[in-house]
Specification:
This protein is of the alpha/beta class. It has 13 helices and 14 strands. Strand 1, helix 1 and strand 2 form a beta-alpha-beta unit. Bound molecules: guanosine-5'-diphosphate (GDP) and calcium ion.
Length: 310
């Protein structure tokens, strides 16, 4: 069975690791949000791609879910002494990824080519690709004005009240070859438990991506990142509230109407199953909190066993 997984950063990477433990490299393709990408010191940083890659490579920091385990920050410290802004935490080893990526992009390689090459170097078997090779940047419109995503997320710690999200460049972007081809040829589409507004919406904003998902021939399954009315981390719950949605798995499901046949909710939310069904989706109730690797594998198996009308 060929599976396409759409992922953001930490939540997406957790499920991708479970899927990668169950599926062979020929049967899983992972396509990742690039709306969070940003340049620092002339380096192209792709935070969500890096989180997925480091997780699959077994290098990620278990405490944060992002960055590299045992990382040091000597370069960042030196940059600060030289008068540079250092609010975005780039570790010394992590910096090497961004140096290689930036050099290859400057040499004319696409972000897809660069990502494949990085995966090869990191011994990642399963193909990982960006959603697009074109420049898309999420702008967060807030009560303190519009700001680039990383300014909102890291520098301002998600404190401003969000009124709108814009995906600059998305309208003229093209789906990456991996996204286009796997939407055509996969048997199952999995929307990982990623932030619907910040990680999945940028992909849907790329022309023809939403329509291709709507008309996707196989089973379409999404997993709620909201469990018991709360995000396990990050601003998903705050955004649902600020954008006028229910702060629950139902509010997330409403973002995926027409894009999803089966919606996976946590057992703590089992009582909301009728609300999911009312949106035209089949609820699949299971443990969705992935603490251990066994949790990730178990959730992956439950999802892979799902069919539209089981
Ligand atoms: P980001 O780019 O690093 O913010 O990562 P994603 O967008 O991929 O994931 C963020 C979402 O993952 C948050 O809304 C979390 O609530 C959710 N999340 C994190 N860990 C888990 C988990 O173990 N289970 C579920 N269901 N959601 C999770
Ligand atoms: Ca992200």
């Amino acid at each position: 069975m060929k599976v396409l997984a759409l992922a953001g950063g930490v939540g997406g990477a957790k499920l991708c690791l479970g899927l990668a433990r169950v599926l062979g490299a020929d049967d899983l393709r992972i396509v990742v949000n690039t709306g969070d990408d940003e340049e620092f010191y002339g380096l192209h940083v792709s935070p969500d791609l890096d989180t997925v890659m480091y997780t699959l490579a077994g290098m990620s920091n278990p405490d944060t879910g992002w960055g590299i385990a045992g990382e040091s920050f000597a370069t960042l410290h030196s940059l600060g002494r030289l008068g540079m802004d250092t609010w975005f935490g780039l570790g010394d080893q992590d910096m090497a990824t961004h140096i290689v990526r930036s050099q290859m992009l400057r040499q004319g390689k696409t972000l897809s080519e660069v990502t494949s090459r990085l995966c090869l170097s990191l011994d990642i078997a399963h193909p990982v690709a960006p959603m697009t090779d074109d420049r898309v940047r999420t702008t967060v419109v807030t009560d303190r004005g519009p700001m680039p995503f990383q300014t909102y997320f890291v520098k301002m710690r998600c404190e401003p009240v969000v009124t709108e999200l814009r995906f600059e460049g998305a309208q003229s972007a093209a789906m990456s070859p991996a996204l286009r081809q796997s939407l055509d040829s996969s048997d199952m589409l999995i929307v990982c438990p990623s932030n619907p507004y910040l990680s999945i919406a940028p992909m849907l904003a790329v022309p023809r991506a939403r329509a291709a998902i709507e008309s996707f021939a196989g089973v379409k399954i999404a997993v709620s990142p909201i469990v018991g009315g709360q995000a396990l981390r990050g601003p998903a719950a705050k955004l649902l509230s600020e954008l006028g949605e229910d702060v629950s798995c139902v509010g997330v499901a409403r973002q995926y109407v027409g894009l999803c046949d089966v919606f996976v909710i946590d057992q703590i939310d089992a009582h909301l199953s009728p609300d999911i069904r009312a949106l035209g989706m089949r609820p699949l109730v299971t443990n969705t909190v992935m603490e251990t690797e066994a949790d990730k594998i178990e959730l992956a198996r439950r999802i892979l066993d799902a069919t539209i009308d089981a």
